[in-house]
Write a structure and sequence with these properties.
This protein is of the alpha/beta class and 304 residues long. It has two domains: 255 residues, 4-Layer Sandwich (Metallo-beta-lactamase, Chain A); 41 residues, no CATH class. The protein is 24% helix and 27% strand. The chain has ten helices and 18 strands. A seven-stranded mixed beta sheet has the order 6-5-4-3-2-1-18. Strands 7-8-9-14-15-16-17 form a seven-stranded mixed beta sheet, covered by helices on one side. Strands 10-13 form a two-stranded antiparallel sheet. It is globular, with a radius of gyration of 22 Å. It starts with a strand and ends with a strand. The model has no long low-confidence stretch (mean pLDDT 93).
Length: 304
Amino acid sequence: MEPLELYILGCGSANPTQKHRPASQVLSTRGKHYMIDCGEGTQNRFARQGLSMKRVGHIFISHAHADHCLGLPGLICTMSLLGRTSQLHVHGPQELEPFLQSALQLFCPNLEFQVIFHVVDTTKHAIIHEDRSVEVWSLPLRHRVPCCGYLFREKPGLPHIRREMIDMYEIPVSQINNIKAGMDWTLPDGTLVPNSKLTTPAAQPRSYAYCSDTAWLPNLAPMVEQVDLLFHEATFDKENEFRAHQTFHSTTLEAAQIAKAARVGRLCIGHYSSRMRDEQQLLAEAQSVFPNTILANEGLKIIL
């Protein structure tokens, strides 16, 4: 099975702190990097975590708030300095496109590669991107501006070859790919060997959902049901619930309730308010509802 890895580049919120950086993540699989949000300083976090900008083909922006998208112009300019020539696809709400176009015209007027913007309808739960590795779905969220999360579903892999059966039936190596694709094998005497005897099922496809920023949204649970890993913002603790509702953010308990209702594998909370000094308290609150919860942190790498 190919590794599926999530890198947390930034998990703070709008007000800068010495501890956390603005929101940004990278999901990596099959040699490709999918970036999710791009707050200020994201390109520096790339270097610190040893990630290659050349492998980024698609960037998914949740909404047009500064702490989620201001890193885009700098990142794209650096890609140009590194000699990028391949297309870059940016997905996000319509409101983001004028900002991005203006910034690129001002700071990167002579790009050697094309930046293609794809408008995401933040009101719909729909496939917005598909390639050989993943499907990406939009997840409508409830915030002060049009906003959506993103659900990544890994494409199913091919079955695994049972080498001992291949050797026993003396099947040529040239036929391995055909057998992986579902072909049976016929012996010289006409006996049919079914594909099920030659292979074992592929590993279960994995999934990851990113939900930031949003007020508590109970109808989100069915859309992320049984994902392997859910990142859900937990900007505030229970004591600051009123402030969370004022600003259309979620609390630790609300994030955990979504995870529990959706029966996800693991919950990762982040997007911490600068008011929150004790992140262990945030963790304890979330774990009181959903025990399999972890804290996001810059430099964290999660293997799914």
